[in-house]
Amino acid sequence: MEQRTAELSQALAAVEAQKQELESALRQKEEIQNQLQDELKDAQLLHTISAMLVDENSVGELYQKLVDAATLVMRSDFGSMQRFDEEEGKLQLIAHRGLDESAVEFWQWVHAGRATTCGKALQLGQRVVVPDFEVCEFIEGSADLIAFRQAGVRSAQSTPLLTRNGRLVGMITTHWTRVCQPRERDLQLLDIIARQAADLIERNASAEALRLQSQRLIEADRYKDEFLATLAHELRNPLAPIQNGLALLKIGKSEQVPRVLPMMERQLGHMVRLIDDLLDVSRISRGMITLKRDRVTLKTIVDSAVETSRPMINAAQHKFTVTIPGDNVWLHVDLTRVAQIISNLLNNAAKYTPSGGEIELVGEVTGSTVLVKVRDTGIGIAQTMLPKIFELFTQVDGTAENAQGGLGVGLALARRLAEMHDGSIEVTSPGDKAGSVFTLSLPVDHAVALDRNPGQHPASHPVGNALRVLIIDDNVDAAETLALVLGVLGHTTSVVVDARKAMATALEFEPDVVFLDLGMPHLNGFDLARQMRGEAALNRTYLAALSGWGSDDDRARSLEAGVDRHLTKPVKLNEVEELLAQLVQRR
Ligand code: ADP
């Protein structure tokens, strides 16, 4: 009986152990089932979110959906999404759920020092969770805490939005009205949403950049079309009077010559000035202009500018006065370039002032600065246009009918030249029809201020003796007109338009001087110069190169080829005269 009882209780214990084992297995199965169910729920949630996002086209809506998804996943009461503005170094609110107007305004921009989870996450570059704002060191006593209380927010988490290469592009935040420590699993799901949000912001930023770039290109294209139209118009304008003048001369109306020639000269001068300005601007932008600085007085510069602009001022019958402080203000500048700036200002004053107006040029020294003011009583410039007129190709609307031609290049060029001299140009105008004042500022050269022995200003010398001049240029008109002029001045000339025949002519003609065009077909001027330098019979011949380009590079190439002097086209007659006079004297 005892044995039987022992056997039974053993069997009972075994059944009990088996039962416990079974129960534990059941519990495990239930746990796994629950876990599976949770994961299924997560997967379904993510699926719903993806479907929501795929459907959406507008970026603003997409941001909103991402915030909605985040609040759903985190079971939170509010949510927000911010983009990181790299220039400002701040987060900007771009979408939210549940925040009221004052909260939106209060947290529109958040910097790294703010007492918020997003401010802290921005500072640390990682997720920040605050389960209870009332017991948080960095939030305690802050204005943000007061705002949180007003908005009814008690806890929050902020997760940085990082692109695939780790760049911070924004922040996603969820808020609760109660104390809350989010579950790890929920945070993992949030990370998936954060990744999508980061991609979206990044994609949107590059699309925006692309849009801006294409807008700029479209604008540049429109600008170019407008510019070409103006250019064509401006270049054609002087051609009509020149053509008419030529026709008159052709039919031999000699009594018209005194009237027609100055007109043709003026129009041609105008065209040359336009083209020169354009070339100068392009040279400056390519860094191809170097200043030839010299010691010059303000008076020398102003005289030179006035000489250039006087015909235009006189033609419009303006009253013109010049006041400068004697002849002892010295500058260390490129005379030609600074005179070009001032004459640009004078020409504009003449152009944009109805005839019979007043133009005043005043020079003064304040401290170590020379100020040259050009004041006119003309049409004036609207306040909104003042900062713009120095931009390339800018012309004030509505002044076209007042303009006597122009491309909107002059002031851009003048300002760049002034800056190259460490100076500046400013403009003021009281407005419509009230005139303008342009002020050029340049540094005084104190080092030479006491030097009372300036170098002689070049003046044209009469040519006493005849020289033999060979002109080599494939542009027949340019060559022949130069020959004509030199002939009138008493020199003997010969013209070659085919570079291949130049050597033979040179050896036969034995010129004192050769004017040599550099850009010619078949044989360029550099090679021809080298050949000439190799001929003993021509070793006393002076070689002057004529080139459309006056860059230092071109000059260096000319010299290296054996050229004595590099002249830039169109060569001014007095430059040629002066060169020939020097050669006569040297002979
Ligand atoms: P352009 O004279 O060839 O048009 P500028 O660059 O010299 O080009 O000048 C740009 C614009 O500035 C002009 O088109 C004109 O509208 C305005 N402007 C320049 N100087 C004056 C001035 N003295 N008075 C009124 N407007 C001026």
From TrEMBL:
Residues recorded as bearing 4-aspartylphosphate in the entry: 517
Keywords for the protein's UniProt record, in alphabetical order: Coiled coil, Kinase, Phosphoprotein, Transferase
Segments forming domain Histidine kinase: 230-446
Coiled coil: 1-46
Catalyzed reaction equations: ATP + protein L-histidine = ADP + protein N-phospho-L-histidine
Any Pfam family the entry gives: HisKA
EC number: 2.7.13.3
Highest taxon above the source species: Bacteria
PANTHER family: HYBRID SIGNAL TRANSDUCTION HISTIDINE KINASE C, TWO-COMPONENT HISTIDINE KINASE
Protein name as catalogued: histidine kinase
Species the sequence originates in: Duganella dendranthematis
